[in-house]
Every structure is written in C-alpha cells, then in structure tokens.
Amino acid sequence: MIAATLTTLAACGGTPQDSRSALPVGFVNHTIHSDAQLRSIWAKAQKNLAQQVDLNPLQRQNNPAIAAKIKPGDPRALTEMPHQLVVDNEVDVSSETLFIATGVQRPDPTGLIACAPPCNVKYAAAYSRYQEPVTKYAESWDDEGDNFELILQYEFENQILFALEYDLKWR
User: What gap in Å lies between CA 34 and CA 151, rounded to an integer?
Assistant: First the structure.
C-alpha cells in the first residue's frame, strides 16, 4: 500500500530559512486529528529518517530502472521539530475535474488535491511547502486510518529533510 500511496505524493520547492527555527515548536492544527496524533506521526517520521533516507521514491516510481538513492539514517532527524507547521486538509478535486485535466478516471472522492507550482505533479494526495511551513492533504484521507498516517508521515519526513537541507527534487 505504501507504493500506491507514494504515487500521489509530492514535494514542493523552497530553500531553508533560519527564521523557521525561531518559531515556537508545535503544529497549527486545522485538522480533525489531535495534536497528540500529529506528534506521534512526526515521531514516526523522525525515527524512519534516523534509520534511512530515501531521496528518490517518486523518480523510481516513474522509472523503476532508476537506481535508488538511499542514504544511511541521519540521527539529526531525531532532534528536528515542527515549528508552527500548519497542517490542514483541502476538499478533494472532483473526478470530473481530474479527468478533464489529466485523462485519469477516479471515483469521488478522488483522494487528490491540486498541487500548485513548484510541485512536480499537478495533483497529489498531499504536499508540503517549506518557507512558511505547511502540509496539506486531501480531505478524504481523514477517515483512512493507517493510510492517513502514512501520507502525513511522508510529508513530515519531507519537512524534516528540508530543515536538514536535503535535496527534495524526487520526494
């Protein structure tokens, strides 16, 4: 299921800013989920990155012949915290809009939202911005339990990797 989930995840560009770390630690939570649940997902993202760093899951998905760029775990991930990270959902793009824009047919709810440039895809299950830290996801994932957590964990990993100055081009 992770592979299927990764097909619709994307990172959006940006450059690190020292001012991010000056913000108070925590989330600006606009979701139906508790702060404790978001902290738990963040901790899973930290632990995962401390074990290994996958720098090109999206690139490999588009071309399985491309070699994986897996780096050893980065222990700095364990100390990286969210600094007023806005976490919010958006209404899923309609199946009609998705079909017109991409030719892809999916039933409603599609599980996708529009991802504005500089995202590397037009629609995604979730995306992150980094200058003003934001993670958004498709509203229909709210009730999807483990899948919701995997989607958010991936985006939280991107937030952490950005703070640690990794290249997110293929994340």
Answer: 16
Name the pTM for this structure.
0.87
User: Per residue in 50-104, pLDDT tens?
Assistant: 999 999 999 998 899 999 999 999 999 999 999 999 999 999 999 999 999 999 9
User: Which of 58, 49, 42 lies closest to 9 in space, CA to CA?
Assistant: 58
pLDDT in tens, 30-48: 999 999 999 999 999 999 9
Helix (H/G/I), strand (E/B), else coil: 132: coil
**How far, in Å, CA of 170 to CA of 60, rounded?**
9
26-30 sheet: strands from edge to edge = 9-11, 126-129, 134-138, 83-90, 26-30
d(CA 122, CA 163): 24
